[in-house]
Specification:
Organism: Mucilaginibacter corticis
CATH class of the largest domain: Alpha Beta
Number of domains: 2
Modified residues (N6-(pyridoxal phosphate)lysine): 263
Enzyme class: transferase
Distance between the termini: 35 Å
Strand order of the largest sheet: 4-12-11-10-7-5-6
Largest sheet: 7 strands, mixed
Site (Participates in the substrate recognition with KAPA and in a stacking interaction with the adenine ring of SAM): 15
Structural class: alpha/beta
Bound molecules: pyridoxal-5'-phosphate
Helix content: 25-40%
Keywords: Aminotransferase, Biotin biosynthesis, Cytoplasm, Pyridoxal phosphate, S-adenosyl-L-methionine, Transferase
CATH architecture of the largest domain: 3-Layer(aba) Sandwich
């Protein structure tokens, strides 16, 4: 039996309709921007394996540090105990994110980082004897798949079976020059009920790489601060250079109260989530009353191997060569965008930093639209490129080590697809 056949006998895959899904592609090896299947076929990972990988696959430096950690200490309970890697990672991360962030809370992934953030906000208010349970979020937001994270995400086909069970969230439009004042007054009207405002800074990935301007986010956050509404920057996707700066919040001057990290945090090597907060939030849980404790934790909280992976990734991230690579990718994307933006099949091209997205013109032929995504997906797979269109939106967000030659190859295949599909 082939690997794919054995897989289908025992495995239920994420975001996959198992009845109609094609055979999964068994990947047996990774190196840099490449993945190799069992037959030795090479794929360029143009989406960084679900947006997680920033330095390339099976990176020797990360592997070395992870290996050393495994032989030193693989895991330890994190309540009542600590370990050097968790401390060092918190110190080093807090030093490079907005300087109002003072404490780090560990968990396992992006969704749990968001759950922790939401719980921090809700309990921040309840610990002070105040009832503020409503959340504010952007329309079409995506913050994860666990229940709290799903609740603050836009209602969609993905959430439909659970909608009646999700808590109350007020969804607002993305800010722009025309609506910013009305958004502010919406916030003012709701302020006494609002526990927090959660947002994906500058780009909504899952919504289809939808971008909005830093200036208006800054205004919204300033307004939240004025109205005493806590803010949560979900940097799970945008963190660690995706937007061309270290963090998406590096593009603005306002500082969120809470930040969430995962995906690129470990270089995409290990599962790890991190929620950071201000001193003010942390202090709201300090009490002689045990009931004011943040009762949250996971078995693998602050796993030392994951922390070692994150520290190794941080070393690579802070190497000036990485910033140069990010700049190189950004410039290459910009040139490519200029070249294709007037193509009759391209509706819009959007770019921020190392992320470029192209919206395919679908006309009004809906059956064409529904099959377009799959046709594009398999077209690129055949060409040895992993791109995973979101509906009619193709996006490239590669590991920063990708070569110019591979970028050019991806661009040329997209241009070819524009002519052929
Ligand atoms: C992917 C993502 C999450 C969820 O992270 P998981 O590790 O998949 O649970 C949350 N927020 C944003 C913005 C994301 O892109």
């Amino acid at each position: 039996m082939s690997l794919a056949e054995r897989d289908l006998k025992v495995i239920w895959h994420p975001y996959t309709q198992m009845k109609t899904a094609g055979m999964p592609i068994p990947i047996v090896r990774g190196e840099g921007a490449y993945l190799f299947d069992e037959n030795g076929k090479k794929y360029i990972d143009a989406i960084s394996s679900w947006w997680t990988n920033i330095h390339g696959h099976a990176h020797p430096y990360i592997a070395k540090k992870v290996g050393e950690q495994l032989l030193q200490l693989e895991h330890v309970i994190f309540a009542g105990f600590t370990h050097p890697k968790a401390i060092e990672l918190a110190e080093r991360l807090l030093a490079i994110i907005p300087n109002n962030q003072k404490k780090a809370f560990y968990s396992d992934n992006g969704s749990t980082a968001v759950e922790v953030a939401i719980k921090m906000c809700l309990q921040y208010w309840s610990n002070q004897g105040r009832t503020r349970t409503k959340m504010l979020a952007f329309k079409n937001a995506y913050h994860g798949d666990t229940f709290g994270a799903m609740a603050v995400s836009g209602r969609s086909a993905f959430t439909a079976p659970f909608d009646t069970l999700l808590f109350e969230v007020e969804f607002i439009d993305l800010p722009d020059a025309d609506n910013i004042e009305s958004l502010k007054s919406q916030i003012s009207n709701l302020k006494s009920q609002l526990a927090c405002f959660i947002f994906e800074p500058l780009i909504q990935g899952t919504a289809g790489m939808v971008m909005y301007e830093a200036q208006y986010l800054n205004e919204l956050l300033a307004h939240c601060r004025k109205e005493n509404v806590l803010s949560i920057a979900d940097e799970v996707f945008t963190g660690f250079g995706r937007t061309g700066k270290p963090f998406a919040t590096s593009h603005i001057s306002e500082q969120p109260d809470i930040m969430c990290f995962s995906k690129g945090l470990t270089g995409g090597t290990m599962a790890l989530g991190l929620t950071t907060c201000t001193e003010d939030i942390f202090n709201a849980f300090l009490s002689d009353d045990k009931l004011k404790t943040l009762f949250h934790g996971h078995s693998f909280t602050a796993n030392p191997v994951a922390c070692a992976s994150a520290l190794a990734s941080m070393d690579l991230f802070l190497d000036p060569a990485t910033a140069e690579n990010m700049e190189r990718i950004k410039n290459a994307h910009t040139q490519f965008g200029e070249r294709v933006k007037n193509h009759p099949k391209i509706k819009t091209v959007r770019q921020i930093g190392t992320i470029i997205a192209m919206e395919w013109e679908t006309g009004d032929n809906t059956s064409y639209f529904s099959s377009l995504r799959d046709r594009l997906y398999y077209y690129f797979l055949d060409a040895g490129i992993i791109l995973r269109p979101l509906g009619n939106i193709i996006y490239i967000l590669p590991p920063y080590c990708i070569s110019n030659a591979d970028l050019d190859y991806i661009y040329s295949k997209i241009e070819q697809a524009l002519d052929e599909i």
